[in-house]
What does this fold into?
Amino acid sequence: MPYDKVRHVTYLFCLNVVDVASRYKESVPIGATSVKNKEGILTSHTISKAFEHIYDNPDCPLVWPKLLITDKGFEFKGDCERLMKRHGVEIQKATSKRSVGIVERYNLTLAKRLFHLQNAHDLLLAKGRVGSHMLGESCAWVRNLPIIVEDINNSVTRLIGMAPAKMIKKKKVYAKPSCRYDRTIGYDELRLSYRDSVRYLLEPGELEVGTKRRGTDMNWSPEVYNIGEVHVQKNQPVLYKLLNGPERRFVREELLLINDGVELPPKSVLHL
It folds into this structure.
């Protein structure tokens, strides 16, 4: 985030939290009186204080969760891990951007809303003269943050068909799938069994160096796995966890059934 100075504190970061079930959001600005060392501001101590600000706030409907999914940043270790342990919260480290896709989408939506206000402020200051020397003067976002978060929480979301502020008061949540499937999903979906052998679809760069998929990369895992866990939920595709496989879950389209056996290349290839 751009620097936003409010009295003697300059805010640079924002901790965003999303409740997966209700899609309820909370955001806490993080700043310091001195910004000479940016890395020294975003620490596990400041993050733990921000979490306490959210979950200990009597006006916030969020309660301490059973599971907290974060990225692998150092700010979510140390004091943050000790805080979660005191409250009985399990921390799960995301293995990919897709694992934290809900909060990443919220980050994008929030940033767009905040920057739209900043751009509008710049245009008004320019008084019709929209030259580059007049734009980019407004960096204020802390003041508008709670207003925008409240508006997002009171707006109907596509997947649950209700505003998060209302949904968080419900005991059960039934969400639509995030994408359309040309097959039956949920309880009536045809499932793989624990006896099935499969390969899984590799993430871009999972076996090679880099984050992009190249034309010469393998599509499926070289190892063969068995199904370890099966998670079935209403209106959602069945999720599979592989025995001794990656931590992430897979839908049926990401698994290649190979019960008929595996035909490997000839061993002579090893001598080429």
